[in-house]
Design brief:
The protein is of the alpha+beta class and 330 residues long. Strands 2-3-1-4 form a four-stranded antiparallel β-sheet. Helix 6 crosses helix 7, helix 10 crosses helix 12 and helix 12 packs across helix 13.
Length: 330
């Protein structure tokens, strides 16, 4: 039976969770915990993530992260695949490391945001490992309160999303979140019983329970449902018109820089921002899906490392929408 497809919302915040197969205490081993954190930092930097909370328990992990333009499933596939491969290689094991697909829940409320950040960092307290989260090394709590230099946590993003401009005020607000969550009865409840999970339709859901209602992330960015609906042909034709590059050129074997750039832009907007499938774009361009996937990867890499390129794509997307609307109304 095929897996249920997952909707990705760019620039949104998620609570991500996954357990180790058979409940083995993998992360009690220092090498494995360092492997996970090193890999997490690598995919964070590559995919333009902001890590807002994190905790490694002995047999599972929790993350609160804000995505960029790279789909969450790509990031998580890189993270879990790399960790599993290196763990098995070092231990000379065969078989899977993870119990199942990761679970991820969209956090679309300010209240839930503070709660989930505090919940993640209070996991060691709930498990009885420590009485003060500052005494637990494998979480982002120490980074959040300024007790150590941030290595995994994006403290600047946490300050911004907390609504406080002063880092000391952010820490005060954060500690208030921690105190309120520590007093909540649901701290030791199962995942599906947490306030931001109770209305999820299934254990793997990563979108809002009713995608028809208007929803915004707490930093006021538009979600994918708010975008003007564009089919794949409309996007391709609009980009060709705007850039003065023919569709025939994109289908050709030409590798001139201007054509390569348009291919990256088309993949980034059609697949990365509007959710069209790589294979469908490949069919329109008479290309192998692997080639289109490489264009998308390159465009995502550039977005993560070059703010000017992200601005270029934002401007191009607006022109694509304007062009498509003109064609519809003519």
């Amino acid at each position: 039976m095929p897996r249920k497809p997952r909707l990705f919302i760019p620039y949104a915040t998620y609570h991500v969770y996954c357990r180790v197969a058979r409940g083995e205490f993998v992360f009690a081993n220092r090498e494995d915990s360092e492997l996970f954190l090193d890999t997490l930092c690598e995919v964070r930097d590559r995919d333009g993530l902001s890590i807002l909370a994190w905790c490694l328990m002995t047999n599972h992990y929790h993350l609160v992260l804000e995505t960029g333009s790279v789909p969450l499933w790509r990031t998580m596939a890189r993270l879990q695949r790399t960790v599993a491969r290196e763990h098995n290689r070092r231990k000379r094991y065969l078989g899977r490391l993870w119990q199942s697909r990761y679970r991820a829940r969209l956090i679309d409320s300010n209240d839930y945001f503070g709660q989930v950040v505090a919940y993640v960092h209070l996991n060691p307290v709930a498990a009885g490992l420590v009485t003060d989260p500052a005494d637990y090394a494998l979480s982002g709590h120490r980074e959040a309160i300024g007790q150590m230099r941030p290595q995994v946590l994006d403290s600047e993003a946490l300050i911004e999303l907390s609504g406080e401009e002063d880092p000391s005020l952010m820490r005060t607000a954060y500690l208030e979140w921690v105190r309120s969550v520590a007093e909540a009865k649901w701290l030791e409840m199962g995942l599906r019983e947490l306030p931001w999970w109770t209305d999820a339709s299934d254990a793997e859901e990563i979108t809002a329970p009713d995608p028809r209602r208007p929803v915004e992330t707490f930093d006021q960015r538009k979600m994918v449902e708010d975008r003007y609906p564009l089919d794949l042909s409309a996007i391709a034709n609009a980009i060709c018109h705007i850039t003065d590059v023919r569709l025939a050129d994109l289908r050709s074997r030409k590798r001139r820089s201007e054509i390569a750039n348009v291919r990256w832009d088309l993949a980034a907007i059609a697949v990365g921002r509007y959710g069209h499938r790589v294979c469908d774009l490949a069919a329109i361009l008479s290309k192998n899906a692997g080639s289109v996937s490489r264009w998308l990867t390159e465009a995502e890499r550039r977005q993560a490392s070059d703010p000017e390129y992200r601005t270029h794509l934002d401007h191009l997307e607006r022109r694509v929408v304007d062009r498509a609307v003109q064609n519809i109304t003519m």
